[in-house]
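Suppose you are handed only these lines of text.
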Amino acid sequence: MGEVDPAFIQDPEHRPNISIIQADGIPVIDLSPLTNHTVSDPSALQGLVKEIGSACKEWGFFQVTNHGVPLTLRQRIMEASRMFFAQSLEEKRKVRRDEKSPNGYYDTEHTKNVRDWKEVFDFQAKDPTLIPVSFDENDDRVTQWINQSPQYPPNFRAIIEEYVEEMEKLSYKLMELIALSLGLHPKRFEEFFKKEETSFIRFNHYPPCPYPHLTLGVGRHKDAGALTILAQDEVGGLEVKRKADQEWVRVEPTPDAYIINVGDIIQVWSNDAYESVEHRAMVNSEKERFSIPFFFFPTHYTQVKPLEELVNERNPSRYRPYNWGKFLVRRKGSNFKKQNVENIQIYHFKIA
Ligand SMILES: O=C(O)CCC(=O)C(=O)O
Ligand SMILES: [Fe+2]
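From them, the structure of the protein bound to fe (ii) ion can be written out as follows.
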């Protein structure tokens, strides 16, 4: 093995610590009260809502069990992902993304301008997805992002579509619980997503890496959307920055659980009551690893700002409104290739 390409090397202060701390305490929340009661009967859900609220406040991350997503579907999609990535680079590049059409395969993603040790396949939940042409505030034109259909495995697209439907169902349930935990109407968030959400699903493949002390599968970052629902395989590697002491702690794989995290949009909607937490993925020198995050994103025309019910004179709004579609377009462009400027972040909209 030759020298590592410098594009992959993390600055010394961001390199992974090989002697990891086990995450004690990422809450595991049993969602079975949801299947036994409907959210229209909030009293039956009080305990659950409280657990969700504390997890969002104290960790920004939690795992859910009894979530209703069939295990067989999860196994099928994991297997399909393995089959897709096992193909030659030439085959995968037939469904490659480019700057204009950001869905499909690529292996050159950068997080904070350092290259990630991974390859990826992205697929929009809605096909087509409506999105602004550019991040220029004065440009009102809207375009469509469409999906690419890999030829192999043959039923990949159908499995993805079935799985995305389950991810959407779970996202809506979680948003209802989060709304209740903030004292809001359970359907408060629905209008931001219905029909024209910009959500997407990502297939991550982290090949074995001979330099696990220098590189990361995904560098430290916060998720920009509302919620992320992550399936990770049994290898493990996800690390979360624990709010209590700012230490990196590992989230151990749990076979049938999903890992949920609050994204930047919930941080803004809740006016910082719930914070989006930094996380990253380690690579492994021996084993390859697969993960599948679903990013629940609102409609492109959503103006993201703290909810009126959650601000008052004593707790004034901490953010200026921003347009989600413009934010997303700008973000996608900068993840695609190394740039010399910092990525757009929600703190750019923070009211000092
Ligand atoms: O693979 C993982 O465990 C995390 C991936 C992630 O954080 C992301 O894709 O945003
Ligand atoms: Fe992430």
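What can we learn from it? Residues 202, 204, 218, 223, 230, 232, 238, 279, 281, 291, 293 surround 2-oxoglutaric acid (ligand 1) (CB under 6 Å). The longest strand covers residues 289-296.
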